[in-house]
Amino acid sequence: MKAVVKWLDNMSFVGESESGHSVVMDGPPESGGRNLGVRPMEMVLLGMGGCTAFDVVLILQRQRQAISDCHVELSAERAQNVPKVFTKIHVHYVVRGSNLDEKKVARAVSMTADKYCSVSIMLAASVDISHDYEIIEDE
Q: What are the strands, taking DSSP E only, across 29-138?
C-alpha cells in the first residue's frame, strides 16, 4: 500500500491514496493552519471507525441479520505532552435493524476488535480501547 502527502500551503496538505482518493488535512489556526480539513490524528480515529464499522456490517450481513443502519461513535483521549498519542479510545456501535440477535451483534463487535479490524488491533498495542453497543429495533 502506498500514499502520497503533498504540502499545499501554510499547514495544509493533500493526501492521495493508492486507490486514487484524496483528502485534505490542515492544522488548527493556532498552529498556522486555516482549518480547511481534518487533523491527522482525526484521520487515524476516522480510519479506525471506518475499518471497524465495515467489519461489523459485513459480519452481520453474512449472519443474515436484517441490519438497516450502523454507525460508530468514537471518543478518544490523548496524552498531554508531545507526542500527544492516543491513550484511550472508546467505540460505541449503534446497530439498527429488524429482530437483530443480540448475541450476533456482540460477537460481531468482539470479532472486529480481536480479529479483523487491522487499525484497532494495531492501535490496541499501545492504546486502551473499549467497546460497547446498542441495538435499535426498526419500527
A: 66-78, 86-98, 128-137
